[in-house]
Amino acid sequence: MIPTGCPAAEPRAGAGPITILGAGIAGLVAAYELERLGYRVEVLEGSHRVGGRILTHRFGSDATGPLVEFGAMRVPSTHQHTLDYIAELGLSDRIRPFRSLFSEPRAYHATGRGYVRLDQAARILVEGFRADLPHGRYREETVLFGAWLTAMGNAIGPAGFRDRRFTVELLDAVDRIDLGPFVVGAGRDQIDLHGFFAGHPEVRAGCGGRLARFIDDVLSETSPELVRLEGGMDQLVRRLVSRVRSPIRLGCEVVGLDVRDRRVLVDLRIGDRVVTRSRSKVLCTLPFSVLRRLRLRNLSRTKVAAIRGMTYWSATKVAFHCREAFWGRDGISGGASFSGGRVRQTYYVPADGEPADGAVLLASYTLGEEADAFGRMPVVDRHEAVLRELSRMHPELLEPGMVLDAASMAWGQHWWSSGAAVSQWELDSATRSQERARAQSPENGLYFAGDHCSANPAWIDGAIQSAVDAVRRIHLDSRSRAAVPA
């Protein structure tokens, strides 16, 4: 957050408010921070809701009904920007642990031999991993390490990144380290990967860019220190909206941007009309996947290339409102199963409300190709496909009256996002830094923010960080220009 000790520069005559495009978390944070610095602001949102990719869905007609997060659903404990905002907005007492994949011993894990309980999966995982290794080259603990890291990567990664064998250098490095302190589980057949990489950061640091990114994502997605907000992540959005005094106008779709020397012209579709607004400063928080279909004029070739070249991955979530949390009969108290197939990940959503209201199963969470396959289906067919496939792992779903309702969100096919987040799996750290610098660089009076402009794409923290950075830049530019005599 930005200290409020520095006053805003005096606005020049006719300058108008700073216009923010997009009412997702980046746009709302930017509006809040700019107001704290004394600026006049307006927020323009093309859709008819605020929040962007924070989207909490509640089943039933009651606002307190069982919920599922179709957008952002967790916060790593290291994401200080997000935690600071949670505290600033008075939500710290709502923080609860978030249990992810590999946190529930009795959850299921899909293997080539069918579904097995996670606490019984080691033998099959090790046998499969060992089959691709030179006979006798590595210690048993090293093979165990590789088997579990591969299993985690296969569970969370998009299709193109599954079953990639680790470089010999990584296994060789691990093989030289005493893994005894990190062998865990009742059968001593699991590896504490988080403890290992925390205790031996030199191993991760010695990996190539793509492998290091893979390890980072595995550790963040399966961290035991993830948290959530009881009552829904959209509480962040609602609290921010209540703090922003400036107008937030819905149904104002940006269709074109024209960057002039001292002005930015914003073409807006409002109903059946297209109008143009002229502003001295505009902050664009729209995803580049959306921005590139707009009519863009007088942007630099570097910026246009950055907008057109940024790759996004899709995500689709399908949720079932169930009569009861039937997975409790299986001894599953939370967390998630790796359901494999097209369904991929299944989360057992915590029931914060009354048991009589039922429970929610996030039946399928998919990325990339699988997400697009589901996303392109008619909604009813999508729900039926997930129900049919997941019932092989959870036959209780087919019990009469078990599934009360279904809902889903396909971000790749959503007009206002055209994707879930930036895909950087293929990029090394240097290329990621270059992409980020090109994304966040302003074009005269047109500034940029959003998780795609940050070091933490796909996370709330990245959106907040980029918004704060953009506000600082706008503030410094405003003060420096105000100091120059006209």
Automatic annotation (TrEMBL):
GO BP annotation list: amino acid catabolic process
GO MF term list: L-amino-acid oxidase activity; monoamine oxidase activity
Highest taxon in the source lineage: Bacteria
Keywords from the named record: Oxidoreductase
EC number, UniProt record: 1.4.3.4
Location of the Amine oxidase domain: 25-474
InterPro entries, sorted: Amino_oxidase (IPR002937), FAD/NAD-bd_sf (IPR036188), Flavin_monoamine_oxidase (IPR050281)
Protein name as catalogued: FAD-dependent oxidoreductase
Taxonomic lineage of the native organism: Bacteria, Bacillati, Actinomycetota, Actinomycetes, Pseudonocardiales
